[in-house]
Amino acid sequence: PQVIRLADYAPPAWLVDEVSLIFRLDPAATRVQSRISFRANPAAPGHHDLWLDGENLKLLSARINGEARSVTPGPEGLRIPATELPEGQFLWEAEVEIAPEGNTALEGLYMSRGMYCTQCEAEGFRKITFYPDRPDVMATFRVRIESELPVLLSNGNPTAQGAGWAEWHDPWPKPAYLFALVAGDLVAQSNRFTTVSGTEVALNIWVRPGDENKCAYAMDALIRSMRWDEEVYGREYDLDVFNIVAVDDFNMGAMENKGLNIFNSRYVLASPETATDQDYENIERIIAHEYFHNWTGNRITCRDWFQLCLKEGLTVYRDQQFTGDMRSHAVKRIEDVLTLRARQFREDNGPLAHNVRPETYVEINNFYTATVYEKGAELIGMLRRLVGDDAYRAALRLYFERHDGQACTIEDWIRVFEDTTHRDLSQFKRWYSQAGTPRVMVEDSWADGTYVLRLHQSVPATPGQPLKEPLVIPVAVGLLGQDGRELQPTVVLELSEPVQEFRFEGLPQRPVPSILRGFSAPVILQRDQTSAERAVLLAHDTDPFNRWEAGRSLARDVLLAMIARDEAPSTAFLEGLGSLLRDPALDPAFIALALRLPSEDDLAQALHEAGEVPDPARIHDMRRKLTHLRAEHLAEDLHRIHDAMASTGAYDPAADQAGRRALRNAALAGLTHLDQGARASRQFATADNMTEQLGALSALLEIGAGADELAAFYDQWRGDRLVLDKWFGLQVMFAAPDAAAETAAGLAAHPDFDWKNPNRFRAVIGGLSANAAGFHHASGAGYRFVADWLIRLDPLNPQTAARMSTAFETWQRYDPGRQALIRAELERMRSAPTLSRDLGEMVGRMLG
Ligand code: HT7
Ligand code: ZN
């Protein structure tokens, strides 16, 4: 397979000023006419061939400046030699035929339950028509859609419409990956937004008839996002309309097409009865994320796909800030770090580790990863910590001013910070080109009122990168007295050498250090900490992240000691939790997070990090045992909390109520271990919202009960696709390790299992890989089941198959028996006759 390299980047030979498209929609034979005005790129002097990307297109006709051309496209596109092209500029016209109903890859123009929709990022536009499908070619688009379907949408503003047709114009130059078209029998929930400068914008969320009463929260989140981007980043919306469409068959979460965002319906539709608080939070976050792309992604886009983190890292950072502002900064930071460690640290410490800005790829879809997105966002947060809030604001102002309308690189991004602060950021730039999670090892000493922190940094070797250079790491530190008083408020230390000392003088006593406050850098902190120090931090740290972190590391160590030597959990640990449960000043959402034990996969990661081989079955048993013991010890508090957190008044998805429900469900999960599910059955029977219904059902399934509730749940929700996904997913995720693969196989044979729908596929097959002990069952049944389904899905939907193959990325952690089983499955996938480029690349990288 062809490897694409950042080092080979060359500017496009031909630029496009304007594109005009006519779509005559038909499921089996859609006709697409294109008129594209090309102009020679002054940045690529000389007279060059014209290369147009195109895949699976039937070319019906082609003309240059009105003259018919006979062209024979290859499998990836067509080339017109320079000798056959006018110099300077010309008009290309073509007509192609495509078959959206047969497009199961859900890339390009495809159909989802009778509705036409598109997905063009990263390289889907080439499945619609011949075009220079690369992000540094930006053009304005005019689109005419002809179809009998009632709603016909594209990017930009509507310009005209009649029976069976509609026309759209997008005045903002954009790359083809932001193109979108939707046609369907849809209804809108509508609203209006007046921008800060007084422009009226029509807002519409388009859904299937019957779903219109489930869009209110998404609309509210959209309006709040628009206002927030004006207030916090000074960014105003720039079209007369903003449309969002919910689609059932979708490979990812959502897509930021200019003026026409397309969403997986699970990130739009919500009602209290059908969506959990977590669903609501996800909707708010993803609506905001896609909207924020209008500036960080669309107005300023990426020069090439290696620069993906330029738009994704920044936009994730912005959506994290937004959620923090809407809800709680402390809780949001903890949630984000949990995700980062679970997904990105896992990726960074295995065979799929790659730079935030990769330097090679075979299939770009394989690089929409936690490293590009979540670590990319951490880099923005670190830059801000290093330069300060005011400089960050000034740098962003300069970024928008200087680069509006351009396709940019990470160099452009770093330069605005350098120009704003007059600081050399070349060492910081290594974060973009060096894979792997840095380790920061801490030593300290104390003498004569001076406390010295000695920090060592190192980055382990990753595939293709044996040696690493030191990074600039912002380490936020505060110091507490033994009584919990703060002796030194937060300072940001800049660790830039392999080893560096930092001195704190004039202290009255040896302090308890609170290091990496707010998780100021995406690193693994290595430090021997006494339980007494942890207890001080857990009880008193003024930094909420580190307060939570103290409890988290206590829980991890308790679990590791149980796993290693059956050691009983210390009373100090249990009592520490008890004090949190009894602290009336704490946010319930924070307490719920403090009660959450490290996941089985987190524990496997911790054991691997410590040089040990994780045993998934033992991890599962010990984690369950601790849940049980902890519930026994804290039973009184858990009862009190479960009663006290019961809802009063109408359901509200906002943070206050959601935090109370999260804590209530956490208490219930513990109590269910003690009462065989009596309370959970009552909660299930009386719940008037999905958060409590699902909380009760999960608690029951976790102890191996809940058969009646599961059946009742199916009867109640069999008509709701999104809720049914939960029914499928829960059963697999909570299945006992011995029964997990069999449960998944049973569900895959269920009449409601639609394996071509990515949400349903992810619920069952992804559900099994999320059940660590079930997936890693020593029989290999879990591995076999997942591999069987990936091999089956791959020829139809390679993008989703490749993404889900990351279930196997941790294989080198395990014992030789499991490694052999996984290797055999990876090799079986690699030799599948239908293996796609997408899955082929992933499996190849995992096998090394
Ligand atoms: N920019 C988008 C990433 C994306 C995508 C979305 C849906 C389906 C396929 C896709 N390939 C790439 C989503 C985002 O980050 O906002
Ligand atoms: Zn994004």
UniProtKB/TrEMBL annotation:
Q: Which GO terms describe its molecular function?
A: alanyl aminopeptidase activity
Q: What class of enzyme is it?
A: hydrolase
Q: Name the catalysed reactions.
A: Release of an N-terminal amino acid, Xaa-|-Yaa- from a peptide, amide or arylamide. Xaa is preferably Ala, but may be most amino acids including Pro (slow action). When a terminal hydrophobic residue is followed by a prolyl residue, the two may be released as an intact Xaa-Pro dipeptide
The Peptidase M1 alanyl aminopeptidase Ig-like fold domain, residue ranges: 436-527
Domain Peptidase M1 membrane alanine aminopeptidase: from-to ranges: 217-431
What cofactors does this protein use?
Zn(2+)
**According to the UniProt entry, what is the EC number of this protein?**
3.4.11.2
The protein's UniProt keywords, in alphabetical order, are: Aminopeptidase, Hydrolase, Metal-binding, Metalloprotease, Protease, Zinc
The segment(s) forming the Peptidase M1 alanyl aminopeptidase C-terminal domain are: 532-847
* PANTHER family noted in UniProt: PUROMYCIN-SENSITIVE AMINOPEPTIDASE
Query: Which family does the record claim for this protein?
Result: Belongs to the peptidase M1 family.
Protein known as: Aminopeptidase N
Organism, as annotated: Plastorhodobacter daqingensis
The organism's lineage is: Bacteria, Pseudomonadati, Pseudomonadota, Alphaproteobacteria, Rhodobacterales
